[in-house]
């Protein structure tokens, strides 16, 4: 129940709907019991027309409440019918119909209000999960499959709504229905009611045995759903490579294996769950059968119960067993909901290792320099950077070069605080970036990566992501600086053209220039370029490089370069090897050293 309590905190904003649901459920439970109890006087009118009460009954005590109620109903029927038996029958039937009508009206109103609570919780849990996903560090998602995260936000949250939140309907309604029904049953025949209670614990024990393994089975189903959603996500992302390497069959086989496991797990789960209804049905009929046997003895042999009361009692027993079955079925839902809630809460309760300090510093102006002081960092076991130090003065351009895996992109990840250093400090104007709010830190930084990350939206909205509330003129000006305006105007709808998923309607160079335009629009004092031209052809590289040079004017820049021809004008070129600085200086200084940098330049010029 711990998971249930944690999920219930999302119900607080909607508690007024919960109170209204409880109110109407109380009325539903009361009228549900009264509707079946009203059958007894109906049967009396049909089978015992001689039972006429001409004198108004007087209430004596609680012990004789049953006799008083029956006599009062019979008195009312006698007064109304005035000797016409059919007239009395119509009155009693009308009473039963009104009671059933009110019962169903209150049931509808209870369900009407709980709908707002259930869907409100569903909405808020999903919103909280999405907010948490955007807040968690990038490192968290390098360990999780995207499809599994998507499954948690979609199907797991929906499972919580179907299982956990359906219990809210049952917590008040069904127990109260059982209580009111039981009180009336006890009033009709205490002996018969006590006899029934011998069988209820046995039924409950059998049903609980069936439900025990449901959480484990449900957990397997939900995990497997995350697995095949991951395969779908990877397939859509890598469709070109899959087709190019004729690897369709391999992915189809993997997908079929996953859906086959899902098929088996689902069958096992649903068959166990489906066992609840027939088991409950049989146990209910068993109880009714025993009641007919024992009640028949009370009517025929002992004559301590009249036939009308006995038939009404059987109807009430059915009314008691129906909510009992609903509660047993809900207990299966709790087991399934437990597995889903555990997966949802795993994300919601994950601590963010890159946390802000309380009352962080808000900084919007860059004044002096960025300093990396003796930093060391590792993603897993081996250090990618070891005792690394670097000073980037304001207005300067520092280029980082080296072979793949030397730690260049890691520096960009650390300065933007996508990851935190294991040792050492990164300071901007003498302030440790851990002291700054993440929003103000990243507000001073512009990032252009090798992979142009664009969204399925218009050109204008993709560029406009760089500045909230940017005007059309500002977007166009940024596009011009990025050498993107001309090709944008050739698109079918210009800046209103949708560029497709990940910008796939554009070429690599066009996508990169949109990324640069986005960074230009942001107009940050510090720019980080992570191999921004390495994936482009020569013509696109020239246009992009020209755009980058315009953008870098009067800005502090950290350039991670693969093509060394793009960083020859940098103020300081830092050569990295296995996470350590082996050389640094200007282009000409490094060439004159005949060291690692010259080897890299020679290798690229020969290629």
TrEMBL record:
Q: Does the keyword Cell inner membrane apply?
A: no
| Xref: Gene3D superfamilies | ABC transporter type 1, transmembrane domain (1.20.1560.10), P-loop containing nucleotide triphosphate hydrolases (3.40.50.300)
**What membrane topology is given?**
Multi-pass membrane protein
Q: Where in the cell is it found?
A: Cell membrane
Question: Which residues constitute the signal peptide according to the record?
Answer: none
The UniProt record lists the ABC transmembrane type-1 domain at 72-336
**InterPro entries, per this entry?**
AAA+_ATPase, ABC1_TM_dom, ABC1_TM_sf, ABC_transporter-like_ATP-bd, ABC_transporter-like_CS, P-loop_NTPase, Type_1_exporter
One family from Pfam that matches here is: ABC_tran
The superkingdom of the source organism is Bacteria
UniProt-recorded name of the protein: ABC transporter ATP-binding protein
């Amino acid at each position: 129940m711990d998971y249930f309590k944690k999920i219930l905190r999302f119900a607080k904003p909607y508690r007024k709907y919960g109170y209204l649901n409880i109110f109407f459920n109380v009325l539903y439970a009361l009228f549900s019991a009264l509707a079946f109890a009203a059958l007894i006087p109906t049967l009396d009118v049909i089978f015992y027309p001689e039972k006429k009460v001409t004198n108004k009954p007087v209430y004596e005590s609680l012990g004789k409440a049953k006799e008083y109620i029956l006599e009062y109903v019979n008195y009312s029927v006698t007064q109304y019918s005035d000797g016409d038996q059919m007239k009395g029958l119509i009155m009693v039937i009308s009473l039963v119909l009104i009671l059933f009508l009110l019962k169903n009206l209150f049931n509808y109103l209870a369900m009407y209000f709980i709908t707002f609570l259930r869907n409100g919780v569903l909405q808020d849990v999903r919103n909280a999960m999405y907010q948490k996903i955007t807040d968690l560090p990038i490192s968290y998602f390098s360990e999780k499959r995207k499809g599994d995260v998507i499954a948690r936000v979609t199907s797991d949250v929906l499972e919580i709504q179907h299982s956990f939140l359906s219990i809210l309907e049952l917590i008040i309604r069904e127990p109260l229905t059982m209580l009111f029904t039981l009180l009336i049953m006890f009033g009709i025949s205490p002996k018969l009611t006590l006899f029934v209670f011998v069988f209820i614990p046995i039924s409950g024990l059998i049903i609980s045995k069936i439900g025990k393994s449901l959480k484990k089975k449900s957990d397997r189903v939900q995990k497997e759903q995350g697995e095949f959603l991951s395969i779908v996500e990877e397939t859509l992302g890598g469709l070109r490579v899959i087709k190019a390497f004729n690897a369709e069959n391999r992915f189809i086989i993997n997908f079929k294996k996953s859906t086959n496991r899902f098929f088996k797990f689902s069958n096992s789960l649903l068959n166990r769950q489906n066992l609840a209804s027939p088991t409950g049905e049989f146990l209910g009929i068993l109880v009714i059968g025993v009641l007919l046997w024992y009640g028949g003895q009370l009517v025929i042999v002992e004559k301590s119960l009249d036939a009308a009361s006995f038939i009404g009692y059987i109807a009430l027993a059915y009314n008691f067993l129906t909510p009992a079955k609903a509660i047993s079925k809900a207990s299966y839902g709790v087991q399934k909901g437990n597995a889903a809630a555990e997966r949802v809460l795993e994300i919601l309760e994950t601590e963010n290792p890159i946390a802000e300090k309380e009352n962080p510093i808000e900084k919007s102006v860059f004044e002096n320099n960025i300093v990396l002081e003796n930093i060391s960092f590792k993603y897993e076991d081996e250090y990618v950077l070891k005792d690394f130090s670097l000073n980037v003065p304001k207005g300067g351009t520092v280029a980082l070069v080296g072979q793949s895996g030397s730690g260049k992109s890691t520096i960009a990840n650390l300065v933007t605080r996508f990851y935190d250093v294991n040792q050492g400090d990164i300071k901007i104007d003498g302030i440790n970036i851990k002291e700054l709010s993440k929003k103000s830190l990243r507000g001073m930084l512009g990032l252009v990566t090798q992979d142009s990350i664009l969204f399925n939206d218009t050109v204008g909205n993709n560029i406009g992501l760089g500045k909230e509330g940017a005007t059309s003129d500002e977007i166009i000006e940024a596009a011009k600086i990025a050498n993107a305006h001309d090709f944008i105007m050739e698109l079918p709808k210009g800046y209103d053209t949708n560029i497709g998923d990940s910008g796939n309607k554009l070429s690599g160079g066009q996508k990169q220039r949109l990324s640069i335009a986005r960074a230009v629009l942001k107009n940050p004092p510090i720019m980080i370029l992570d191999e921004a031209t390495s994936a482009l052809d020569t013509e696109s590289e020239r246009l992009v490089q020209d755009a980058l040079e315009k953008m870098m004017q009067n800005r502090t820049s950290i350039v991670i370069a693969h093509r060394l021809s793009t960083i020859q004008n940098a103020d300081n070129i830092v050569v990295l090897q296995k996470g350590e600085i082996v050389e640094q200086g200007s282009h000409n200084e490094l060439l004159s050293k005949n060291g690692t940098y010259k080897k890299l330049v020679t290798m690229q010029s020969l290629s």
